[in-house]
Amino acid sequence: MSKVKIIGESLPNIPWQDKPKDCAGPVWRYSENPIIKRNPLPGVARIFNSAVIPYKGEFIGVFRAEQIDGVPHLYLGYSKDGINWEYEPEKIPFVNEKGEPFMPRYAYDPRLIKIEDTYYIIWCTDFYGAALGMAKTKDFKKFVRIDNPFLPFNRNGVLFPRKINGNFVLLSRPSDSGHTPFGDIFLSESPDMTFWGKHRHVMSRGSEWWQSLKIGGGAAPIETSEGWLMFYHGVTGTCNGYVYSMGACILDIDNPSIVKYRANSFVLTPEEWYEERGFVANVVFPCAALTDADTGRIAIYYGAADSYVGMAFTTVDEAVAFVKEHDGATEDDKSIGII
Ligand code: BMA
User: Fold this and answer.
1) What digits encode the pLDDT tens for the residues 51-72?
2) In contact, 81 and 15? CB cutoff 8 Å
3) N- to C-terminal Cα separation, the chain
4) CA trace torsion 10, 55, 170, 300 (10° rounding)
5) Given ligand 1 and candidates 109, 122, 235, which is best to mutate, with the most ligand atoms within 8 Å of its CB?
6) Are 292 and 10 in contact (CB under 8 A)?
7) What's the 44 CA to ligand 1 centre distance in angstroms?
8) How far is the CA of 269 from the centre of ligand 1 (A)?
9) Contact in structure between 137 and 143 (CB atoms under 8 Å)
């Protein structure tokens, strides 16, 4: 039994491996990583930065698939164990409210979140520039696009898995048109998934080297007895380019623009060959996490080097203890985020 409670479903079948004795950090990698290798299906060169969710006792995933023409699109996949995947051969066939085909020109970095009886996909889309795209499905057969929540430029849209104070809540990272060399995490609310407002600043890029350039939401926040546990990405700039690491923080349960604790050390940083070497070197990019409320186990899916999908594990006790022990939240992080 964990000390900190995950407020969520019992999912005894999520992927899991115990912590290796020689692992120093709070998060450890799956020994068989990467779980998705290059050329995973015809016409697709690489799958990475992808989202997974439990579905009917098994798992379903929305995958960022870099096609052989270099354009990213979203593909659906199915798995019995969350590790071995079978994919639909065609892109997810998005439609508009009338049921007519409505495909994005490109789509990348999906998140997949269930709120009540609906699954929402959020991704980075072309809306006269990089912006957030959204769609909903109840059955993973019909995918209806809903209005883009924000003006360009924006990326890293992450929904909370339930309404808070009666509203949907969405994290995002306002950005620019390129490989944005700045960026903080903000939060917005909506009563209906169409009109977004009550914008709040959640947290800034950190003073610590590993997250000093920009940060962005990662896996959907995990509800716990200590607050919302969130794994996010933090980026630094080096003379050889950006380095993406995974960080962790805990947001206030009722006012999630308030950061309660934020680890000043990363929880995972590129170290393995599949993270350090690839289409874009030195990238660890979390997009989803599965949890088991009974055991406190957490399985995190992350993109590695824009080339592969990796999996890492922790427990809610380890992650929360680490974040609290290494807390570096600033006064601004701890504020409501409106100035
Ligand atoms: C970001 C996004 C991610 C990517 C990362 C590293 O701007 O495009 O999809 O993993 O850069 O290339």
Assistant:
1) 999 999 999 999 999 999 999 9
2) yes
3) 42
4) 60
5) 109
6) yes
7) 17
8) 15
9) yes
3-state secondary structure of 236: strand
Contact call for residues 176 and 129 (beta carbons, < 8 A): no
State how far the Cα of 115 lies from the Cα of 211, in Å rounded to an integer. Answer: 30
Q: Which residues line ligand 1 (CB under 6 A)?
A: 49, 108-109, 179, 244, 280, 283, 285, 303, 306
Contact 200, 337 (CB under 8 A): yes
Report yes or no: 231 and 286 within 8 Å, Cβ to Cβ. Answer: yes
Distance CA 60, CA 337 (A): 35
DSSP E strand boundaries for 212-307: 214-217, 222-224, 227-238, 241-251, 259-262, 284-292, 297-304
Q: In which band, very low, low, confident or very high, does the pLDDT at 187 lie, cut at 50, 70 and 90?
A: very high
Alpha-carbon distance of 243 to 285, in angstroms, equals 10
pLDDT on residue 160: 98
For every residue of 283-334, DSSP letters joined together read BEEEEEEEEETTTTEEEEEEEETTTEEEEEEEEHHHHHHHHHHTB---HHHH
Q: Which of 101, 80, 99, 79 is nearest to 88 (CA)?
A: 79
Question: pTM here?
Answer: 0.98
Among protein residues, the one whose CA lies closest to atom 11 of ligand 1: 179
Name 198's Cβ contacts closer than 8 Å, sequence gap at least 6: 167, 188, 189
Span from the CA of 242 to the centroid of ligand 1 (angstroms): 10
Residue from 232, 131, 117, 121 nearest 163 by CA:
117
Residue nearest to atom 9 of ligand 1 (CA): 109
The DSSP secondary-structure symbol of 6 reads B
pLDDT in tens, 158-176: 999 999 999 999 999 999 9
- Dihedral over Cα of 315, 36, 73, 175: its sign: positive
